[in-house]
Amino acid sequence: MRFLLAFLIIGVSFSAQAQIVDASFFPAMKTINPGVVHLRQHGFIGAELSKRSFAKQHDVTKYNLVDGIQTDVELQKATVYRAGKGPGFTIEGMFDQESGTQVDTSQVASDKRKTTSEASSTFLSGTLDFKYFGISYARSSYDFLYKFRVGAVPDLSANDVKEELTYTMLKVGSAIKLGPVRLGAYYLTRTGDGSFTYTYYDPNTGNKGDTEAFDTSSAAHGYGVGIGATGPKLRAEASFEKMSPITVDIPSDYPEPVNDTPASSRLSVVGEVKFTKLALGFRARQIKGNFYDLQDIISANLLYKNLTAEDSRLETTFNFGLGISKGLSVSGFYTQSTIKTEELDPIDPDSGDRFPAETKATAMGVNVSYVY
């Protein structure tokens, strides 16, 4: 098992998710289980702007590379989120837009190579909680453009790969109270369809040449279960989530080998304490494989696409919130992490060769919300 360690130094977690058995003391915390929405004690509407940066040094020793491969990723996200308060029938909704760039830099002898990728996603979800069970529907679009350039005319090697994918997700869940004990579970299905387009360039002139397009589709399902306890000032929760392998259907003449994404899982532990106008929280997650929420598809594809079912990473987050009961709230967050692991060769992942990698990440953002 490969193990990644990420320690998030400090954070105000507007965009965090952790709720499978009960509503959080943080009104702005997004729920994972649609059956939890009716347990919210406060309604909420808010907006957030955030930025994340990743720098990964992958010490690949093949292909006569000098100092391996350096990958730099910059992501920007804007989110609008609204949640009603229970009990009874409750509605929740979220709109999210994210864009990012990835630059891969390597060197062979004195020849420096740089490839640039651009990605964007739009996520829209709605949840209806009927008290005894909740249903959520989400739709996400993902666009990715990879530009490969080596050499110069008349010996140019260049091509573009464009991905245009749309995902839909249906999730059903329930959460119940048994005195101070809370139980929750959900089940989801996720499908995707879209296309991959290859554009080739004339090595002698650099002009665009032939273009090939390939349709694709994918499917997966998953579930989550949790148990917890909630009191007037304290709450705790433990949950386990599992995603099946993502099966991919693509034409046999596709120019690159495509494998199904392995199964993945996420184990979470959450603790929160509430004071009069202040809440403090802690969340720890062990993630195996490339487990991700649909609104985080960009970072999942750019950073963790080649993780296997055996790869594991630990993420910890500290949260705090002021003005958690009612009224206008303005807050921000800053997180920092360092991750060390061994990852598959990004040039030829089917070789099975692994090399050490270190990823340094920072994230910051600001949000404005109104709690009622």
Task: Please describe what this structure looks like.
With 372 residues, the chain is an all-beta fold. It is built from 1 helix and 18 strands. The protein has a 16-stranded mixed sheet that branches. A two-stranded parallel sheet has the order 2-3. The N terminus is likely disordered.
Number of strands: 18
Parts with pLDDT < 50 across at least 5 consecutive residues: 1-16
What sort of overall outline do the alpha carbons produce when their principal axes are compared? Answer: elongated
Main sheet properties: 16 strands, mixed
Please work out how many helical segments DSSP would assign. 1
Helix and strand sequence: EEEEEEEEEEEEEEEHEEE
* Share of β-strand residues: over 45%
Q: How confident is the prediction overall: mean pLDDT?
A: 85
Supply Rg.
22 Å
Notable characteristics:
elongated, mainly beta, 372 residues, 1 helix, 16-stranded mixed beta sheet
Layout of helices and strands:
Layout: E1 2-7, E2 17-19, E3 30-31, E4 44-58, E5 65-83, E6 90-108, E7 111-129, E8 134-150, E9 157-178, E10 181-201, E11 208-230, E12 234-243, E13 247-249, E14 264-274, E15 278-288, H1 297-303, E16 311-322, E17 327-344, E18 354-371
Parallel strand pairs: 1-16, 2-3
Antiparallel strand pairs: 4-5, 4-18, 5-6, 6-7, 7-8, 8-9, 9-10, 10-11, 11-12, 11-13, 12-14, 14-15, 15-16, 17-18
Brief sketch in words of this structure:
With 372 residues, the chain is mainly β.
